[in-house]
Design a protein that fits this description.
The protein is of the alpha+beta class and about 475 residues long. It has 13 helices and 13 strands. The protein is elongated. The N terminus is likely disordered.
């Protein structure tokens, strides 16, 4: 009896040792070989003896679970399909096969649920024509127009919403951006894989809960139980439909990428540009253009050159040129090329100049130019006048030499002429009112004589006062 009971125990230990050795070999093959080698080694005939030996003990069963994780027999039956399924379900950073597929600018199929969206803003010459071109470009790649909103108040604008396959997303973005001048573009992607998995799991749980309530409802007898179960069933069925609707919405967004393109009418805009230079001396503007910075002595004459250019896409007219520092107005400007009274079309220019004299107060050049914005026919577009300033720098060397006799005499005469001018101005101001003091003198004279006459009349009207009688000396 002792020998018979000991032999099975020794055999069991031997089987366990063999199982441990086989398990180690399988693990080594799984780590060092490919998936196909692992599938081949795990499907050998030794696994049958391993399974039969593992039934007698819990410990070998645990080792069996560790050594067979990965479903090796299924990989043996269909390795190609299983490998493709694994690549589709792996995350972005797990496999290199998924990352190597697709173009550089094309969404890569990595087995994830991703929502692609884009917002594009394009400036075009004609909104209607550009809208038709956009629809044609998307139709050629199998996309659909899902919405359109057009406005003609103020600046014409249309907003188009397209849906395309994710594989055509980048191509659609490139086509729509090339319709006109691209002003703004935003591309985004949202990985909703976890959300889809969560919704699917919640739907499965909700369906199971609904089925349980229906089973309970079939076996319910009392009216109270039936009413309570029906209310709970209605609530859970409503929740189930909401979950299914959310899942359909997400899946629809994943299956078709959304592109929103805004086409805006290009608005004509004026752009006036002024370049101002100067040079010493005056020769009728022959030496224009000059330099932006010049040095000269106080009292020297110099010439200021102006180049007025229309860099916008509208015509300009009614030019006004002023330089407050030198007291220059439009009438003082000499035009060398172009016409200040005509139309200045886009791309054209006007060349002009004016003469000035340097003084100690002249430290800079700043000529202001304004113009009215008109169309090609000269009609006012009723927008604000456009303006620009030309700037430059003058280095005026002050004259510190003592004035001579001639200079002093000239300055004295200038002062005298100024004083005479002031007297003449004052005389001119008071001459129209010279009759006012005369009239006042006559009025005062008249009032004085009137008072004297009145006083004399009052004296004559008073009675004569009798002389006092003399008193006797005794009374004194």
């Amino acid at each position: 009896m002792t020998a018979k009971s000991t032999r099975p125990a020794a055999m069991n230990r031997m089987i366990r040792l063999i199982a441990l050795l086989l398990t180690g070999a399988l693990l080594f093959a799984a780590c060092g070989g490919s998936d196909d080698d692992f599938a081949t080694s795990s499907s050998t005939g030794d696994s049958d003896s391993f399974d039969s030996a593992a039934d007698d003990s819990a410990e070998p069963r645990a080792l069996e679970v560790d050594s067979t994780s990965g479903d090796a027999p299924d990989n043996t039956e269909a390795p190609a399909d299983q490998e493709e399924s694994f690549e589709r379900s792996s995350p972005l950073g797990d496999g290199g096969a998924a990352a190597s597929s697709g173009g550089a600018n094309q969404p890569i199929d990595i087995g994830r649920d991703i929502i692609f969206t884009a917002q594009i803003s394009v400036e075009v010459e004609d909104v209607g024509t550009a809208g038709a071109e956009a629809q044609q470009a998307i139709n050629e790649i199998g996309g659909l127009l899902f919405g359109q909103q057009t406005t003609t108040e103020g600046v014409s604008r249309t907003v188009l919403t397209f849906r395309v396959r994710p594989s055509d997303f980048q191509e659609a973005v490139n086509r729509l951006g090339g319709i006109g001048t691209l002003r703004d573009q935003t591309i985004s992607s949202d990985d909703v894989t976890e959300r889809v998995v969560d919704l699917e799991s919640r739907i499965i749980t909700a369906e199971a809960s609904v089925e349980r309530l229906r089973t309970f409802l079939e076996g319910a007898v009392g009216l109270d139980d039936v009413a309570r179960l029906e209310a709970q069933l209605l609530e859970r069925e409503t929740n189930l439909e909401l979950l299914k609707g959310q899942l359909r919405t997400v899946q629809d967004q994943v299956s078709l990428a959304t592109i929103t393109v805004t086409l805006t009418q290009r608005v004509p805009g004026p752009d006036l540009h002024v370049v101002q230079t100067a040079y010493t001396g005056t020769n009728g503007g022959i030496s224009c253009q000059g330099d932006s910075n010049i040095s000269l002595d106080e009292g020297d004459a110099f010439t200021v050159c102006l180049e007025v250019s229309n860099l916008g896409d509208t015509s300009l007219s009614d030019f006004v040129i002023t330089d407050e520092g030198f007291g220059i107005s439009t009438n003082d400007i000499v035009v060398d090329e172009g016409d200040l009274d005509g139309l200045l079309a886009p791309g054209e220019r006007i060349l002009a100049h004016f003469d000035a004299e340097a003084s100690s107060f002249s430290t800079g050049l700043e000529t202001s130019v304004t113009a009215k914005v008109v169309n090609s026919e000269g009609e006012d577009l009723r927008v604000s006048r456009v303006g620009a300033n030309g700037t430059g720098f003058l280095n005026v060397r002050e004259n510190n030499a003592l004035p001579g006799f001639g200079d002093s005499l000239e300055k004295g005469l200038n002062v005298l002429a100024g004083m005479i001018g002031i007297v003449v101005i004052l005389a001119g101001l008071f001459l129209p009112f010279i009759w006012v003091p005369v009239l006042l003198w006559l009025a005062l004279r008249f009032l004085s004589r009137r008072r004297e006459a009145t006083y004399e009349e009052e004296l004559q009207a008073q009675p004569a006062t009798p002389a006092p009688e003399p008193q006797p000396e005794d009374a004194l």
